Amino acid sequence: MFWKFDLHTTSHIDQLLDREDVTLRELMEEDDVLQECKAQNRRLLLFLSQDHCMQELVSLITTEPPADLEERSRFKFPNIACELLTSDVSIINDKLGGEESLLEMLYRFLEQDPPLNPLLASFFSKTIGNLIARKTEQVITFLKKKEGFIGLVLKHIDASAMMDLLLRLISCVEPAPLRQEVLHWLNEEKLVQRLTELIHTGKDEERQSNASQTLCDIIRLSRDQANQMQENMEADPLLAVLESQESVAGLLKNMFEGERSEASIVNGTQVLLTLLETRRSGAILTTVGVLEQPLGNARLHVARLVAALLQTSAPSICQELCNLSTMDLLLDLFFKYSWNNFLHFQVELCVAAILNHPSSEERPSPASNPEGEGETSIHNALVAHLFQKCQLVQRILDAWEENDKIQAEGGTRRGNMGHLTRISNMVVQNLEKGPVQAQITDLIKELPEDCRGRWESFVDETLRETNRRNTVELVSTHNMHSSSEDDDMESPFPNDLSLQQAFSDYQIQQMTANFVDQFGFNDEEFMCVCAQANAAAFEACCKERIRQFDDAEEEEDIWEEKEMNYATQAKSRTR
After folding, report:
1. Which segments of 156-261 does DSSP mark as H helices, in order?
2. Would you say the C-alpha torsion 561, 566, 567, 569 has a positive or negative sign?
3. Is the dihedral of CA 491, 495, 500, 502 positive or negative?
4. Helices 90-98 + 136-145 axis angle, to 10
5. pLDDT classification of 373: cutoffs 50, 70, 90
6. Which H, E and C letters describe 556-572, residue by residue?
7. Is the model more confident about 361 or about 11?
8. What is the rounded CA–CA span in Å between residue 544 and residue 345?
9. SS3 of residue 143 by DSSP
10. What angle do CA 442, 445, 448 make, to 5 degrees?
């Protein structure tokens, strides 16, 4: 039966290549031409590496398309050509880097009068940058022979692609001796001085901004490479010039010479601030260990922005977040930074916004709102993305089992478990009743059988017990004045550990998130608030306990009869 089906299919590209008169444009019209190229389709690669094809590809990325073409299709072929040239296929890299005539065609792009077309400039920069990384010696030798190369790049520095090209020359050249040779060449060409000269009151603001950013990136890249460099390696000559008194004096002179402008002051100050940056070590010591790469303020703010965008329920935003796999990345960060409650809260808001989106029944009818159906379908795609691509259920189960293993070995409960509990409950609640109940039910049914079984056991047992513990009543009068003589107590304190239950880590994490979200405390301020709140709570509880002891019968000496055993208490704690 198996042999009845011919599972081998010939691609349409192979069919086209069977024709003797096939053209490059016909092949580039095919949707899978890039995929076939990266898959090392030998017939296709042999065709593309022919002289006339390579010349046409280079011409496409360096020549302005006809203006009479439709805007959306003007740069279709240049874009495909760039992707083919940078597909990291050795036969194309060898051809492009080894043929000086092709490199000359590329180089002529720089000889145009400014401004360059931004898209073509990006195609050019990406292609040259790929060659710098893959055919380093050939390309560097070619560029060094061009006396005016640095001048032409700086002539077009208003295009950010030229800034990227300079940074590739500084950071992407290997091995180290060759990189050092390139740095000396750039220093001989007075790159730093020329960039500094562009930060001048009489220069175009865009050129000033890009020159300033390039200098800042050179400083950071050079310092990072210096930290990784062996002791016997030579220092970076570009960094040495930038840090010299002469260079700083020249920068200040350009900033304030002649008629002062805000742009030159801002851009010059940016370089000075970068020079003054203190270089921290690659690891940060925290109370829970060494944090190799902090989440950072920028990523936290982006997470807040994504959460706010999701709450708008705009279809275009939902579609773009799916395309970019934004939720997948946020969940990666959620589990990687298990002690950053500020991030956990934002991810929880994102999941809530996706799961609690109003259903089509709660919206106006399609007749009055023809876009309603489209919005619902796009949002349904986001829900499917959360469960299929992001594998929300599998991540919850894996994280929970990993945490249980850590605790069983005597480790500390992870700091994101409270938020993970809330996210899990959101999924369960929407399975029972919610705007996307039917869809989530179907998505759960699509899970592999073993995963579905793990999820059902988790919901019925683990999550139910966790919710029970998290909803234990706070200290009550009944509990405090219980006179049961049957309690088996190892210490004079009640064995319900009500103080611990009242301040379970689940609730503390919610306090953390809410305090920060509402009041905007920074880390140090928040820790002070928490410390004061915990101290006040502890003092109140102690007073209540002492009052209990005062009310007890006088003949009972609890301190004499019972031995305090803090070790036992510590082991019995859930955190």
Report:
1. 160-171, 176-188, 191-198, 205-228, 237-242, 245-256
2. positive
3. negative
4. 20
5. low
6. CCHHHHCCCCHHHHHHH
7. 11
8. 34
9. helix
10. 140
Taking residues 261-274, what's their average pLDDT?
89
Q: For residue 485, give both structure tokens.
A: 């003589």
Let me know if 372 is exposed, middle or buried by CB neighbors in 10 A (0-12, 13-18, 19+): middle
Please give the class, per CATH, of domain 16-146. mainly alpha
Give the pLDDT confidence of 404-449 residue by residue, as tens digits.
999 999 888 999 999 999 999 999 999 888 888 899 999 999 988 8
SS3 284: strand
Q: What are the φ/ψ torsions at residue 277 (nearest 5 degrees)?
A: -60, 135
Residues in a beta bridge with 362 = none
What single letter denotes the amino acid at residue 167?
A: L
The rounded distance, in Å, linking the Cα atoms of 519 and 522 is 9
Distance, in Å, from the CA atom of 470 to the CA atom of 477, rounded to the nearest integer, reads 20
Q: For residue 204, give Cα distances in angstroms to 115, 157, 266, 345, 533.
A: 12, 10, 14, 44, 55
Task: Look at the pTM and tell me if it is higher than 0.70.
Answer: no
Q: What is the pLDDT of residues 138-162, one digit of tens each?
A: 999 999 998 889 999 999 999 999 9
Distances (CA, A) of 468 to 51, 405, 424, 472: 73, 21, 14, 7
Residue 8, φ and ψ in degrees, nearest 5: -90, 120
What is the C-alpha radius of gyration for the chain, rounded to an integer number of angstroms?
32
CA atoms lying within 13 Å on the CB side of residue 517: 19
Instruction: Find how far residue 12's CA is from the centre of its chain.
Output: 37
What is the distance between the alpha carbons of residues 121 and 161, in angstroms, rounded to a whole number? Answer: 6
Q: How far apart are CA 359 and CA 373, in angstroms?
A: 10
Mean pLDDT of the chain: 79
Q: How far apart are CA 423 and CA 85, in angstroms?
A: 45
Residue 467 has pLDDT above 70, yes or no: yes
Residue carrying the six token digits 């189960």 = 397
| Residue 256 contacts residue 240 (beta carbons within 8 Å) | no
Query: Residue 458 and residue 479: Cα distance in Å, rounded?
Result: 31
More confident residue, 245 or 70: 245
What pairing do the DSSP bridges indicate for beta strands 289-291 and 284-286? antiparallel
- Measuring CA to CA, how many Å separate 205 from each of 90, 95, 119, 286, 365? 41, 39, 20, 42, 52
What percentage of the chain reaches a pLDDT higher than 90?
Answer: 45
Residue in 94, 93, 56 with CA at minimum distance from that of residue 78 = 56
Cα–Cα dist 460/444, whole Å: 15
79 and 28 Cβ atoms separated by less than 8 Å = no
Q: Backbone phi, then psi, for 290, in 5-degree steps?
A: -90, 130
Q: Is 350 helix (H, G, I), strand (E, B) or coil?
A: helix
- Backbone φ and ψ for 289, nearest 5 degrees, come out as 125, -165
Q: Which amino acid is at 218?
A: I
Q: What's the mean pLDDT in 271-292?
A: 71
Cα separation of 211 and 205, whole Å?
10
